[in-house]
Specification:
The chain is mostly beta strands. Helices cover 3% and strands 40% of the residues. It contains two helices and 45 strands. A hairpin with a 2-residue loop joins strand 43 and strand 44.
């Protein structure tokens, strides 16, 4: 965060307002400025020289186009942006600004410490310390279009999550926070929980770690809610690590994009050190341009489900590396179980302990209509498999992949599992006729491919530069 701007007058003329795109500290003039300080009084007028004592008092006074400035200190209260508190508007949002990272802690009341239930509110720059209590640090509920929780440090709760979207939440943005150490003894506590009925939720540029559940879970309604599945969830540019479960768990949710995140250090996570799972009856999930490393399993699709299997999960342009096989660690890059129309395009696998891709294991159903194209698979040893195929699949198309020398394959033929060379794999399955087995000459720092992978792929909708698409996650030759 930048430094604070010079104090504005307590009452300002009508001028352009911060619409949420400006970071705290930019030269934005508000219609009115309110002030809160631990040394203030709620009977004061709330000016810079005579501030309020509580955030609650300021919430009752503020209106559209105005800002509340909260000075550093500790505030034992619930910040309730609900009820009679006024909403902002698209042209005149309301900003609740922490100055010097003021700390919000529990008081004797119950409920989330920060409750955002109005549209066009910007809550920025607070530490929310739940102090081991069984409360959410923050929640969004109802129509909160244009409302943002940003630049916070939220930690220390023992309820089921740190931040929740629920009660038909629409339009929430959670950005640029550190969310960590939400730990429920013997149970899950997620960093962020997107609940059924939520729509158009954006989770951007957060650092989320050390929770007893997932960093981010999009939970389905199965047996839990009469609300429809969450729909339209964007998870982008986050860093997630060292949770007890996954970085991201997508259950029955629709239209989820998981893009340009870092997911690392899940070797101790359950089950099996997996960093990302898409299961139940998820639909239209895009997993794109993520960096996943130091895990026991990078991505799992399918498995548990109630009703339909996951449908149209696209996994493309991800960098998957150091996937470890060991005690309870499967060493699998992408594991495909019961699912329909999964697409595995232009990923790069480096250093997998067991197999880059497994499919058709039969965990609660068939893998159907699967495509595997334009991937670089460099397993890093002579005992790992490029593709490990089990019998529970129908309609597989694998082609234009680049396998490093020594890569093995496995399939069940004539009732027996066989370890195969690339030629044997082609003969046994009819797959990978146009694929190659050659050193991809990867740059270890950038995963940029060398000449054997350049301009050689099949076009699958991924943008490309040069004479043709490259194989793998990183396209060469682009400006």
């Amino acid at each position: 965060m930048g430094g604070q701007a010079a104090p504005a007058p307590d009452v300002a003329p009508d001028v352009a307002l911060d619409n949420g795109s400006s970071a705290a500290g930019n030269a934005v003039v508000y219609l009115r400025e309110w002030y809160v300080s631990p040394t203030g009084s709620d009977s004061a007028p709330g000016t810079s020289t005579q501030p309020f004592r509580t955030i609650t008092r300021a919430l009752s006074a503020v209106g559209p186009g105005e800002r509340i400035n909260v000075s550093a200190g500790t505030y034992a209260e619930r910040v309730r942006i609900t009820g009679s508190v006024r909403a902002g508007t698209a042209s005149a949002p309301i900003r609740l600004q922490g100055v010097g990272k003021p700390k919000i802690v529990p008081n004797a009341d119950s409920g989330s410490l920060v409750q955002i239930e109005k549209p066009y509110w910007q809550v920025d720059g607070f530490e929310v310390d739940v102090q081991g209590k069984a409360y959410y640090a923050a929640h969004f509920a109802g129509n909160v279009t244009g409302s943002v929780l940003s630049h916070g440090n939220l930690h220390g709760g023992t309820a089921g999550t740190g931040v929740s979207t629920h009660y038909a939440c629409v339009g929430a943005t959670i950005s640029d926070n550190e969310i960590h150490h939400f730990q429920k003894p013997g149970d899950d506590s997620h960093g962020i929980l997107v609940q059924p009925g939520s729509k158009q939720i954006s989770i951007l540029r957060n650092v989320i770690h050390d929770n007893s559940g997932d960093s981010i879970q999009c939970i389905g309604p199965e047996g839990l809610s009469a609300e429809p599945p969450a729909d339209g969830v964007l998870i982008q540019d986050n860093t997630m690590y060292h949770d007890h479960e996954q970085a991201v768990d997508v259950k029955t949710c629709y239209n989820v994009t998981i893009k340009h995140n870092v997911m690392r250090d899940y070797l101790e996570a359950l089950p099996g050190g997996c960093s990302l799972v898409v299961h139940m009856s998820a639909r239209e999930v895009l997993i794109e341009d993520n960096d996943i490393f130091n895990v026991g399993k990078a991505i799992a699709i399918g498995g548990n489900h109630v009703g339909p299997v996951p449908y149209h999960v696209v996994v493309k342009q991800n960098r998957i590396r150091n996937v470890v096989k060991g005690y309870q660690l499967e060493g699998i890059g992408i594991k495909l179980e019961n699912s329909q129309m999964a697409r595995v395009f232009n990923n790069t696998f480096v250093g997998v302990g067991f197999a880059a891709i497994t499919a058709g294991g039969g965990d609660q159903g068939y893998t159907t209509d699967l495509m595997i194209k334009d991937n670089i698979i460099s397993t890093g040893n002579g005992t790992a498999y490029g593709i490990y195929l089990s019998p529970y699949y129908s309609v597989l198309l694998s082609r234009y992949n680049l396998f490093a020398p020594g890569t093995l394959f496995s399939a069940v033929t004539s009732g027996s599992r066989r370890t195969l060379t690339l030629d044997g794999w082609r003969s046994a399955t009819g797959q990978d006729g146009p694929s190659r087995q050659v050193d991809p000459q990867l740059d270890p720092a950038t995963m940029m491919p060398g000449p054997p992978a350049v301009d050689w792929g099949e076009y699958v909708g991924v943008p490309w530069c040069g004479a043709g698409p490259d194989i793998g996650a990183v396209e060469s030759g682009c400006p």
